[in-house]
Amino acid sequence: MLTLTSSAVQVIRSVTEQPQLPPDTGIRIAPQDDGSSLGLSVTPGPEAGDQTVEAEGARVYLEPTAATVLENSTLDATFDEQGEVTFVVAEPER
After folding, report:
1. Which residues on neighbouring strands pair with residue 56, listed in sequence order?
2. What DSSP assignment string belongs to 78-93?
3. Which of 6, 24, 44, 70 is most buried as measured by Cβ atoms within 10 A of its Cβ?
4. What φ, ψ does residue 10 adopt, rounded to 5°?
5. pTM above 0.85, yes or no
6. H or E segment at 72?
7. Do 7 and 79 contact (CB within 8 A), yes or no?
8. 80 — pLDDT class (breaks 50, 70, 90)
């Protein structure tokens, strides 16, 4: 199962815990339209079949294909010099 770093938890919570958003709002990871990569978006809740990863109030919803691809990986978040967030997936060590 995907794990979240404390930095990822903080970033996800800052994005999803806005008063105007539904309580189950989270980040959803799913294949892009071209099928060659995964994309991340804010969503009001999981879609049918999604796997839910929750840590300290941060919710990540994984589309089934994404859940398989990210099995045993870790999601981290970093800030660049302009303050933009970048999510990074660390592959499991083999």
Report:
1. none
2. EE-TTS-EEEEEEPPP
3. 70
4. -65, -45
5. yes
6. none
7. no
8. confident
- How many helices (H) does the chain have, and how many strands (E)? 2, 7
pLDDT tens, residue by residue, 47-60: 999 999 999 999 99
CA distance 78 to 52: 22
Angle at 46 between CA 90 and CA 88, to 5 degrees: 15
- Long-range contacts of the stretch 51-57 (C-beta < 8 A, 24+): 51/1, 52/26, 53/1, 53/2, 53/3, 53/4, 55/3, 55/4, 55/9, 56/9, 56/13, 57/9, 57/13, 57/17
Question: Residue 22: helix, strand or coil by DSSP?
Answer: coil
Tokens linked to 11: 């970033």
Beta bridge partners, 58, equal: 55
The two three-digit tokens of residue 15, written as one number = 């994005």
